[in-house]
Amino acid sequence: MNSDSYEAVIGLEVHAHMLTRSKLFCGCAADFGAAPNHNVCPICMGMPGVLPVLNRHVLELAIRTGLAAHSRIEPHSTFARKSYFYPDLPKGYQISQYDQPLCRGGYVELPPREGSEPRRIRLVRIHLEEDAGKNIHSENASLVDFNRSGVPLMEIVSEPDIRSPEEAVDYLRELRGILVAVGASDGKMEEGSLRCDVNVSVRPRGTSELGVKTEIKNLNSFRFVEKAIVYEVKRQIEELSAGRRIPQETHLWDPEREVTRPMRSKEFANDYRYFPEPDLPPVLVAPDLVESIAAAMPELPAQKREKYGRDFGLSSYEVGVLLGRDDLGDYFAAVLAAGVNAKAAANWVMTEVLRAANESGKPLAQAVPPPQQTGELLRMVEQSRISLNAAKNAFAAMCRSGNTAEATVLELGLAQVSDEAAIAEVCDRVLAAEGAKLAEYRAGRDKLYGFFVGAVMKAMGAKANPKVVNEVLRRKLAG
Amino acid sequence: MRPSAVFTQMTSELNRLTIAEASARLRRREISSRELTRACLDRVAAVEPRLNAFITVTADEALQQAELADRRLDQGDAPALCGIPLAIKDIYCTRGVRTTCASKILDNFVPPFDATTIARLRAAGAVFVGKANLDEFAMGSSTENSAYGATRNPHGLERVAGGSSGGSAAAVAADECLAALGTDTGGSIRLPAAYCGVVGIKPTYSRVSRFGVIAYASSLDQVGPFARTVRDAATVLEAVAGPDPLDATCSGRPVPDYARALSGEVRGMRIGVPKEFFVEGMDAAVDSGVRGAIAGLEELGAESVEISLPHTDYAVAAYYLIATAEASANLARYDGVRYGLRAAADNNIELYNRTRAQGFGAEVKRRIMLGTFALSAGYYDAYYLKAQKVRTLIRRDFELAFEKCDIIAAPVAPSTAFRLGEKTDDPIKMYLSDIFTISVNLAGLPGMSVPCGIDPEGMPIGLQLIGPPFGEEAILRAGDAWERSGKFAPPRSRL
């Protein structure tokens, strides 16, 4: 069988650091970047006698995420202890939801790719758990930083509904969009706010039985997720094609060599001895709470896409480009907020802004003027104070100088002349100088109209408002 | 001249007062907390070499606390426990004071925080004489499993004090303090209270915060007091009980005024007598002592009814699965990484193995292994889950029983205090000391031990009174009525 006769079956487990001020079970700050062991207390250090108390805000964020993902919010869920020894795990167990998670079911709808239907990736569950600390190994010692110990994590587990590496990335992107929209996560994968484990198996196309899966752990970028899946699918197909079996294994992605490699069984073969956490009563979610959270849901990515299409007349391609990058989408929204026509703003952001950002190689915010200034510039075009071409020149200059739109247009002398008297004067001069052509035109050579427009514009250094030029010229030519 | 000088000749006896008496005299400024504390510390110095009720005596801190208490008393603004010397089981985290849990693994551990109960006692102006001995991590029934040596029974030094809160019970019985805090997971307050002839209360699970109390079995552990009278025990309980934002399992129910429950009136109270708690092989003295106390309550107007708790036989087995399962996780944190003992090692695994091998005693290791096994893949359903089902049945037994009675009366243990070393070689025999106390923990109910007699060798016998959930007032009322009836006067320690 060749590789086309196999299909990939992929499921994702996403761990999201939640955007809360304090940790899951104590009052310590949950933010990153503090000096080692600064954000710690007896509770998250696992001192004798301490007890966990659930952070209510975390619960609300998780419920909001569940609602955004169409999940069922369980009225009764529980925490369990997951036992294993590791220096960064202060209690010797992790408190995690296990057999009774907060949310079950639901789905994430992927935006349509060119020429394809929208797809739904179903969810198995969403649950809460605490993060561990961090081991830091030096030459002759290992140090542990417990700042991260007890930071709330939300684990979102998908069904094996994903069929390609691209679809996995689409899913991850959409999920991230949802998490950011509901305020549950900052979505910063590169900073470790989202981590992803991928389950991959392959099976002969047309069959419905699941193959033996490989779990690939600890992927922290969209690119790695895609590459790891591409690699793993290819590897599995080669193994099966060669008549070998796939053992159920846990692999690690090696970003240097761009391969996955099996972890030693010692690294993961734990009996976690889960049992209900006796220090935390069941989490009881009253219908009122769910209703009040549902009533205050923020705009979700899918709703935003729909709104952009409906209200701004943007094509799904345009929406896809604009919302495909957080920075671009945010920039667009900010230009819109400056009171610019949506279509014009969309075109500008997708062409000029994107180009400038790509060419500079810098983050968008540093590559282009603040969105308010871009909005200002586009408003000048709308008000015919400058031409579209002039705006492009001004934008390029603004990207370099960081000056305001107003100052740049003034400095480059790009302001358009809309003064009818001034334009009429130039028109008179041009017509007087081109007596022969005028005669020809009046004799019926309509095509010469363009010549006169060009001549007027040239005489005015291309700064005349074309609309006014047209009006005046037509009147004069009509004689 | 301060009025206390009049009593100078009695100073050596101050440590024998009840809280009620001492508090009244402190308030009248007839005595000072400093004198009272000094008397306790003198007694500690005199008897500790023989008794070993304390792991750490905090004499300097105690005298400082006493002086602060005296200042409050002088100002006339003092809660009931102000200036009262107490012993604290060395399982409570005490800020700045070494807290060992009777384990070598915590020999050098000084908590940076107070348990909620300790903070409440501090705020009330109580004085802490020291940290009382216990079975390591509260695992035991005799206080012989202590890395700091066994505590002896003040009524017979060759006998055990009971456990696991043996140090707390012995300290109260030997007049080293006026009252004490213990913890009760399977009988660890009631059994030593019975063996040492003092009052011990294990309140309803969730009545008192567990925050800062080193966990043995989280779903069973409960904080409680020892004292020489029911009234004193109620006073201490009231001071430590109540909602705590740091303990998610702690009840939000307001704490009643327990003193008001002590009316002496038990007329019409229905006392259930469970037939399963009067078994073959029980000491005759225990049987007659407990039955005598029940008859005494009947004479005061209560009526007794026979009840049945049919699943009692399974309680010990269920307990040793649930408690050890929870303990196996609770004790995982003692890994040598952050505090406590750290054995020399070249890698993680060695660090864990050596630290835990050197730090834990035999009984603790036994229970960790039992619990780890009970939770292991393939055994969970057969052991842990089955035990939880038994627990539900035991709870149901009590629910049904309390349809017929207001409180339950039974022995605390089948025998009086046994001899040191008598059961140390046979864990099962030791576990069976808790046969009458364990089911109360599994059901989360309040239970109390009140002295009700002595055996022919002079060893105390305890009457166990069990209430429905949050039925502390009923058992306190019955215990107090029995105590005040004068039908039995508990002997004082002969030390």
Query: What is the terminal-to-terminal distance of chain A?
Result: 81 Å
Mean pLDDT of chain A: 91
- Please tally the helical runs of chain B, counting DSSP H or I stretches of 4 or more residues: 16
How much helical structure, as a percent, in the residues of chain B?
25-40%
The succession of helices and strands of chain B, N to C, reads: HHEHEHEEEHEHEEHHEHEHHHHEHHEEH
Please supply descriptive tags for the structure shown above.
heterodimer; A: 479 residues; alpha+beta; Arc Repressor Mutant, subunit A; 3 domains; 10-stranded mixed sheet; 3-stranded antiparallel sheet; 17 helices; 41% helix; B: 495 residues; alpha/beta; Amidase signature (AS) enzymes; 11-stranded mixed sheet; two-stranded antiparallel ribbon; 16 helices; 37% helix; globular; disordered N terminus
